């Protein structure tokens, strides 16, 4: 729209006396200089549009292959880390299982020792010469310790024999003292 009013505005703007005109002139000169320098730095490209497209496709394929290789490397790294973590979990699980087995064995031994103590006390209580006496029976790992007194030496030996006859007893430490009397 070239109206007389717009033409007068344009001539006023082109007057170098106004700051707006100086700004427009500076920007225009800078743009022309920038385009000129940019054009000087580019070599002539005599390729056809198809060749340029083929080049762009080849470059994209190359970048895709690089990205695939990087993804494979990252996947291999993750796989190795997962394998290492799995091995650590297995080792921890194996240790926990071993600890549980050991605790179970210890608990079983305690229950077995308590059962042995009860069985030895019952055998001693069934003997007429030993039943009235106070004999302390302690069991640890199948080893029975008898403490207290016996009326005579044969009763002392019989207490050892009765204790040895109980299932699970591996040894008897007879500390019974023959009563004097």
TrEMBL record:
Protein name in the entry: Osmotically-inducible protein OsmY
Cited PANTHER family: BON DOMAIN-CONTAINING PROTEIN (PTHR34606:SF15)
InterPro entries on file: BON_dom (IPR007055), Lipoprotein_DolP (IPR051686), Transpt-assoc_nodulatn_dom_bac (IPR014004)
Entry coiled-coil feature ranges: 57-88
Keyword entries, A-Z: Coiled coil
A Pfam match: BON
Coiled coil is among the record's keywords: yes
Domain of life: Bacteria
UniProt keyword annotation of Transmembrane helix present: no
SMART domains recorded: BON (SM00749)
Domain BON: from-to ranges: 112-180
């Amino acid at each position: 729209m070239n109206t007389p009013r717009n033409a007068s505005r344009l001539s006023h703007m082109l007057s170098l006396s106004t700051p707006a005109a100086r700004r427009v002139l500076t920007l225009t000169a800078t743009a022309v200089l920038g385009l000129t320098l940019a054009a000087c730095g580019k070599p002539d490209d005599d390729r056809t549009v198809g060749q340029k497209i083929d080049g762009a496709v080849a470059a994209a394929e190359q970048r895709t292959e690089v990205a695939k290789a990087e993804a494979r490397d990252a996947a291999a790294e993750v796989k190795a880390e997962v394998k290492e973590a799995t091995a650590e979990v297995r080792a921890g699980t194996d240790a926990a299982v071993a600890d549980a087995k050991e605790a179970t064995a210890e608990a079983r031994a305690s229950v077995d020792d308590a059962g042995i103590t009860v069985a030895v006390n019952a055998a001693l209580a069934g003997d007429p010469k030993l039943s009235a006496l106070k004999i302390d029976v302690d069991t640890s790992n199948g080893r029975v310790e008898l403490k207290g007194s016996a009326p005579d030496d044969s009763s002392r030996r019989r207490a050892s024999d009765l204790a040895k006859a109980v299932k699970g007893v591996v040894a008897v430490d007879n500390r019974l003292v023959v009563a004097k009397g």
